[in-house]
Write a structure and sequence with these properties.
single chain, alpha+beta, Catalase HpII,  Chain A, domain 1, Hemocyanin, N-terminal domain, Rossmann fold, 3 domains, seven-stranded mixed beta sheet, Catalase_immune_responsive
Length: 705
């Protein structure tokens, strides 16, 4: 683990770094040994009784080697099985002493090491990154007071209100048990059967059918703590809080058709994107924000603040940005770090406490329990990626995979032989004390009546969407609910979402072969929350990827000038041609085509540029893959640019539907619906600037409205 620029931070940081480094082993130029360090002379044949005889039981090397192989895989997580992680650091912007006594939130000069794991929920470890799904966003802070975990998602609400329903939810959404089909999708009968019989899912389904469920990358994905927690300051004053991660690059998504095709073209699309960004020094950044409510405001709203199927609209409860996290190091070994990392919302530090959110209360047990079987026993905290910076002293002993060597005869408390150590300490000395919330009531199995409004916030979310986002939600319903075989379930989907928005229900019915609602539904909610619409997010060209289509005879100036402008703005460009290797410009200069139409696809890029050069364009015009490349980008509303003869090539594609630059344009730019063209450019910098503005917009939805 490495520090970010600007200082080494406190001793705790250095200790964690050294601790991790002690477990890293480079095996190059080393002698082969057993796990006990015994040097080996042969590893190609097992020990036998004669060269054709049976293998002997005494062959300890064979037994060790094959036994380890047999146990190389730990059970994958039941949910969030497919994940990808990275290291980084977190810094608070200003002391948060007024709100919490958590030490890592006090000193702006402190760089707290973190490990973050992003994941999908439904699919197995071998599923594709771009499936429509909730994304996990789990962060482990290695603080001087112990490890603190925020185990969140990229959506601020959840399907269910009480953790007791979690097994039912996951059993319903996982592949159906009789045939283990389908993988990593909610587009099947058992999931929607659960939905229509569990109306509390309505709000989450709206988010799941939205663009939020198919992010452009982990780097452009919001994170939420989902549940309600508490901040507690040194005076014992508590406030309710919700946690947010805001990506500095903004919140951006794929479209459904694009995401499904990417699952085949590059099932590791999100993993590769995160790895490459960090590897290239484009460190992902997320600002950390909190929503806070005074305890006396608990019942101020028309929703229950402890209901995990509800969010706190930012217009009502603003997000206070208090710090930033930077991810600046990839893992060295996926299994040892990303796969073995263990998170739990119960991992807290003084100054952070829980609420009575019934989903959170169940999670506090479930996560710890899961690690016991997944990581082979109670000592998973001793795996390097899980070890805290803070020293560990307690009376726990033994168990599977115990790595610490505990000295002394005492493993109990109280004791005399060791002067009652290790000894609990008072709160003032750093000991954790739970917030003294008053609790009273009968033991019952009931849900609060304040949790019974299932549809109002689902309507609020629908009202907050732009025309394009609503169209995408309808399209998602058509595919997901349209994949259901049972007609009764389809009809109940329509009837259920008639409670949310009648126009939505009618559109769903049209696409899935069901009857429109027989009665006008709706909740009467007319308010909106602009903060949840991705149309209101940050727009930047930084770290975007552009495909440059060129062949022999390309215009060297038109290619290099634009690529230079892109690179200077933090945009990467790949030259894509019919064949990989060196290509020669019309004036005899060469550059390398790193990709061809077999290894590249418009799905993998944010924009396309076609420079001029008559011979290059003639070659591209003969290539169906080149035309399809532009058509695919145009279909998915991505930015397209062309210069000189490249403009003529665009006219043979779907981009030709846009008014393009004419031959007599005299170097003037033409730009419309996300297509920028120029002929006879005298100012390539101006053209590059226009191109970058369009890339920053991300998608040009007006093409298909």
């Amino acid at each position: 683990m490495q520090q970010g620029q600007g200082g080494s931070g406190p001793a705790g940081n250095d200790k964690k770094i050294q601790q991790l480094e002690n477990f890293r082993t480079a095996h190059n130029n080393q002698t082969l040994t057993t796990n006990m360090g015994l040097k080996l002379s042969h590893t190609d044949d097992s020990l036998k009784a004669g060269e054709r005889g049976p293998t002997l039981m005494e062959d300890f090397h064979f037994r060790e080697k094959i036994t380890h192989f047999d146990h190389e895989r730990i059970p994958e997580r039941v949910v969030h099985a497919r994940g990808f992680g990275a290291y980084g650091y977190f810094q608070v912007y200003q002391p948060m002493t007024e709100y919490t006594k958590a030490k890592f939130l006090q000193d702006p000069s402190l760089k707290t090491p973190v490990f973050v794991r992003f994941s999908t929920v439904v699919g197995s470890r071998g599923s594709a990154d771009t499936a429509r799904d909730v994304r996990g966003f789990a962060t482990k802070f290695y603080t001087e007071e112990g490890n603190y975990d925020i185990v969140g998602n990229n959506i601020p609400v959840f399907f269910i209100q009480d953790a007791i329903k979690f097994p039912d939810l996951i059993h319903a959404v996982k592949p159906e048990p009789h045939n283990e089909v389908p993988q990593a999708t909610s587009a099947h009968d058992t999931f929607w059967d659960f939905v229509v019989n569990t109306p509390e899912t309505a709000h989450m389904i709206m988010w799941l059918m939205s663009d939020r469920a198919i992010p452009r990358s982990f780097r452009m994905m919001e994170g939420f703590g989902v549940n309600t927690f508490r901040f507690v300051n040194a005076k014992g004053k508590a406030r309710f809080v919700k946690f947010h991660w805001k990506p500095v690059l903004g919140v951006h998504s794929l479209v459904r058709d694009e995401a499904q095709k990417l699952s085949g073209k590059d099932p590791d699309f999100h993993r590769r994107d995160l790895w490459d960004a960090i590897d290239q020094g484009n460190y992902p950044e997320f600002e950390f924000g909190v929503q806070m409510l005074e305890e006396e405001q608990e019942f101020k709203f028309d929703f229950d603040i402890l209901d995990p199927t509800k969010f706190w609209p930012e217009e009502l409860v603003p997000v206070k940005i208090i710090g930033k996290m930077t991810l600046n190091r990839n893992v060295d070994n996926f299994f040892a770090e990303t796969e073995q990392v263990a998170f739990c919302p119960g991992n807290v530090v003084p100054g952070i406490d829980f609420s009575n959110d019934p989903l959170l209360q169940g999670r506090l047990f479930s996560y710890q329990d899961t690690q016991l079987i997944r990581l082979g026993g109670p000592n998973f905290h001793q795996i390097p990626v899980n070890r805290p910076v803070a020293p560990i002293h307690n009376n726990q002993r033994d168990g599977y995979h115990r790595m610490s060597v505990d000295q002394g005869v005492v493993s109990y408390f109280p004791n005399m032989l060791q002067q009652n150590t290790p000894t609990p300490v008072a709160e003032g000395a750093g000991g954790y004390v739970h917030y003294a919330e008053k609790v009273e009531g009968r033991k019952i199995r009931e849900r609060s009546k304040s949790f019974q409004d299932f549809f109002s916030q689902a309507t609020l979310f629908w009202n907050s969407m732009s025309v394009v986002e609503k169209a995408h939600i309808i399209d998602a319903f058509h595919f997901e609910a349209g994949s259901v075989q049972d007609k009764q379930i389809k009809q109940r989907v329509v009837d259920m979402f008639n409670y949310v928005a009648p126009e939505l229900a009618r559109q769903i019915a049209l696409g899935i072969g069901a009857n429109p609602p027989s009665e006008q539904g709706g909740t009467g909610v007319t308010a909106a929350s602009p903060a949840v619409s991705q149309q209101n997010t940050i727009q930047s060209p930084k770290t975007r990827k552009v495909a440059v289509l060129a062949a022999n005879g390309f215009c060297y100036t038109g290619l290099t000038q634009v690529v230079t402008a892109l690179t200077n703005a933090g945009v990467s460009a790949d030259i894509v041609s019919s064949r990989m290797g060196m290509i020669t410009s019309s004036d005899g200069k060469q550059t390398e085509a790193a990709k061809d139409f077999t290894t590249a696809d418009a799905l993998l890029y944010d924009a396309v540029y076609v420079p001029g050069g008559i011979e290059s364009i003639q070659e591209l015009a003969k290539t169906l893959d080149a035309r399809n490349f532009v058509n695919e980008a145009f279909k998915h509303d991505k930015t397209i640019a062309a210069a000189d003869d490249g403009v003529d090539f665009l006219k043979t594609s779907d981009a030709g539907k846009v008014q393009l630059a004419q031959p007599d344009s005299g170097g003037k730019l033409s730009s419309g619906l996300g297509v920028a063209t120029v002929r006879g450019a005298a100012d390539w910098a101006a053209f590059g600037e226009e191109f970058l503005k369009l890339i920053a917009i991300d998608r040009h939805w007006a093409r298909h409205l």
